[in-house]
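call fold(seq) -> C-alpha cells
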Amino acid sequence: MSPRFATDVVTFYHPGFWDLDSAEAVREWAADHPDRFWQRVLDALAETEVTGIELTFAPGDIASVLRAYGSAEAFRRELAGRGLAVVSAFVADSDAPDWRHGDNLPAIVADAERRAAFLAEVGAEVLVAGLPMRATYGTRPPFFVDAAYMTRMAGIAHAVGEAVSRHGVRLAFHTESHSTLWYERDIDLFMALTDPRYVWLCPDSCHIALGGGDPVAVARRHTPRTALAHWKDAVAPIDVHLTIDDTVYAQQQPYMTELGTGIVDWEGWADAMSGTPGAGTVLIELDEAADPVGALRSGTAVAKRALAAQFSVGGLRQSQIDQ
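ret:
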C-alpha cells in the first residue's frame, strides 16, 4: 500500500501567498478571518496530491481551527468531505509551557492532554513536540546539554507521553535546529534515556543535516521508534553560530530548500522510512513556500521517485505509488 502525502500548515505562511507584506500581517489577518484562512489552505491542497495536515503554531493551530469550525468534529467532517485528514499537531515553544522550568510539569501535561484530546477527536494519532532551544554559543554562564539535563527532559517526556497515550496519541520528538535535540548525539542520548512505549521520534531530514548529521543514519538507528518524519531538504550544514533568540528561525531559512534541490539522500531516506511505524505518511515540510501548490507538487514528485527506487526491489509497481 502506498503512503499518503501530508504537509505542515507552515507551508502556507509565506506573505506572498496571501498578498501581504509580512509574516506578522499574515498572522493578524488570519486571526481576524480564521474561516477564510482555512478555506484558502484547503482549496490550495485540493490542487495537490497532499491529503494529510499537520497543525502547527498560529495561524494554523488548534485554536484557529476551533474559531473557524467550532469543534474538532466539525473540522473533521469538513476535511473528510474534501478527502483530507489531520495526521498530527506540532507543539511550538511560543504557545506551550516552558520545559526548562521544573515547576511547569502540571501545566505541561495539561497542555499536552488538551491537544491530545483534540487530536483523538479529529482522528489523528501523533503529537509532535521538541526539546528547549540551546543557548547562543559563548553565552555566560554556559548552558550544557549533558546527561543531567537530558535526564530531566526524559522525565518530563515520560509524564507527557504517558498522559497522551491514554488518548491513543503518540508523543514524537522533532529534531529542531539549534534545539537540545539537534545533533546526532543529542538524539541518541535522549532516545536511550526514554521508554520506547511512551516516547517516539519525529526526525526532520533537513534539521539533522543542518547540524552536520546524517539523516539516513539517524533514521536507521531509530527505525522502531519513528512515529512520523518530516521530509525536508537542506542546502548545507550551518557552519556558523547563529544567535538563538526570536529571530533564529528566520536566520535558518537560507539553509533550507525544496525537496530535491539540497543535500539530503532521498533514496536512502525513503529506504530508512519504509520500515518505520510512520511509513504510511510522507510529510513534506516547506517552511513558508511562496508558491505552496507548486512546491508541494514538486516535493511530491521527488518523494515518489525516491519511493519508486526503494520499492522497486520489493516489486511494488510505479502505478501503485502513483495511486
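Residues 314-323 have pLDDT under 50 and may be disordered.
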